[in-house]
Amino acid sequence: MGFIMDGLDAEDYDRTYSDRDLLRRILSYFRPKLGSMVLVAIMIVLFSLTQAAMPLLISEGVDGIENGTIADVGLRLSAGLLLAGVLGWLFNFVRQWYSAKVTGDVVLRLREDAFDAVLERDLSFYDETPSGRIVSRVTSDTDDFATVSTLTMDLISQVLMVGFVAVLLFQRSVGLALLTLVVAPVVMAVALLFRKVARTSTRSAQRSLSRVNATLQETMGGITVAKNFRQEQRIYDEFRPINQQSYRVTLRQGFVFSSIFPVLFLVAGLATVGLVQVGGTRALGGELSAGDWYLFLQSVALFWIPLTSIAAFWSQFQQGLSASERVFALIDAPPRVVQTDPRPVGRLAGRIEFQGVTFGYEAGSTVLRDFDLVIEAGESVALVGHTGAGKSTLSKLITRFYEFQDGLLTIDGRDIRTLDLAGYRRQIGAVPQAPFLFSGTVADNIRYPRPEATDEEVLAAATAVGGGDWIDALPDGLRTDVGEYGRALSMGQRQLVALARLLVQDPAIVVLDEATASVDPLTEAQIQEGLDRVLADRTSIVIAHRLSTIEHVDRIIVLDHGRIVEEGDHATLLARGGHYCKVYNTYFRHQSPDYRPGSGFVSVAGST
Ligand SMILES: Nc1ncnc2c1ncn2[C@@H]1O[C@H](COP(=O)(O)OP(=O)(O)OP(=O)(O)O)[C@@H](O)[C@H]1O
């Protein structure tokens, strides 16, 4: 079965709950709905009574015909059946209505909890888990859970009905009742045996579906790049096997589930044969009335309804159970970033110190080893180095998106793990390379970190960035709609909005991953002015990609393979002719205004 299961491994945070724990957890969601559930239970009992009354009434009718007094029972029978039908409809209506409400409320809470858990996860969670898989857990998995709840209530109702019928049967004939009942344990045993294999195949089916979702999501996210490179066919070729895998796994699930029916039919068939034989003989011998015999034959069918329901809905039931397991695993996933003592942060000065910090993204691979660095409060530092040197990693540790494994990271001399995370993050202004804008207006986006900021504050922040000329270029000023992901704005305008947003936030520490996208000289100048304004009087760590930045910062730190290999200001480092010069020649040289292709190289000591 090898490749059928490829890529369907559990996520890191997945876990298997024992049946007891799973049930306890599910019930905890239903507990607050106890009142409605009691009402549903009463309706179920009443509905089941009306349903059980039907075969009883008919059996009495049959006895009536046998005794030649149909005229006496005819009216009573019709009235009884009509009353049972009408009452049954009424009880069932109330039951369905309240069941739907209970289920809806439970799913609402479960989905809120799942979404809350998603928001609480560390950044590492998003790096490791494709977003399509997360979406699957919050949407389709919670839906599957709802199905379990509906099915359970249906099942309870049917089991109750069988209970009532069983009491009737025992009153009529203990022997025949036992024969009828013999079916139940056999069917239950088959169903229980079937349970484990059903849960496993269902889990695989769900994982394969979430893999399909994840692939679709990634395709949508990267559609511009894909179209640009004319890679539609390749995307399709990658999607096909994943989709086919989902098809095969689901087919296998279908095969597993359909195999239970022949066994169940065999058991029921045997029971019916027995009843026809034994009951018929007794009826002929006068020991059993024709009505009672009818009741027994009818009862096999009645017994069958819940038993086949268990079998028919077993797949959905198992699907719901493993869906709830997946949702609970998401809710219970332990955070990697752990605050040991969340103390209030207060206003930070912004001194950052790494003391012997060791960090790796995965066990067994180390990106930073025994790393030391002090960044003074108010200092501006540029991180440079070849790709993969560890620049973003440093910023991710400062922003507390990842947890380091060893050493100490202090902020203003306080262990970073003892700071209240929310309070700390409020004072960290993190700007990614491609600033993300949410749907809404430019003003909404500038106001994002502090929704209570007034229009005047927003305007002041926007004006402070690059003199505010860029606002005039927007079709509707600050009220311009930025479109999805800010697509209605140019790259440069998005960066300017991100800088204005920082001013509204007023963080003590700025961690900025400079954009690499080139913008026109005017916007470039506006961004530079904006940066000067934003970084003034704050500790700033800039993953530098622009020449003007490295020329302006207090200190440049050159990283290589997670180690600091050089540090100093631009002029000193250039004069030294060391590692920095290589980085300069590769990434910054061509940005000089008097650059001519092939010129501007700085000589590196030891190179010819
Ligand atoms: N999420 C991740 N999971 C596993 N390894 C990672 C992850 N992010 C980065 N790495 C690895 O850690 C090392 C340092 O990466 P980092 O992103 O800090 O480099 P960088 O200097 O910022 O590079 P770039 O300039 O290309 O962004 C690299 O070897 C990289 O492959």
TrEMBL record:
- Show the InterPro entries listed in the entry: AAA+_ATPase, ABC1_TM_dom, ABC1_TM_sf, ABC_transporter-like_ATP-bd, P-loop_NTPase, Type_1_exporter
Identify the residues that the record assigns to the ABC transporter domain, covering every copy: 352-586
Write out the GO MF terms. Answer: ATP binding
Which terms are listed as keywords in the entry? ATP-binding, Membrane, Nucleotide-binding, Transmembrane, Transmembrane helix
- Provide the membrane topology annotation: Multi-pass membrane protein
Give the principal location in a single coarse category: membrane
Record keyword Cytoplasm present: no
Q: Name one Pfam family in it.
A: ABC_tran
Question: Which ranges carry the ABC transmembrane type-1 domain?
Answer: 38-319
Protein localization:
Cell membrane
Q: List all membrane-crossing ranges.
A: 34-53, 73-91, 145-170, 176-194, 254-273, 293-314
This one is known as ABC transporter ATP-binding protein
> Which organism was this protein described from?
Streptosporangium longisporum
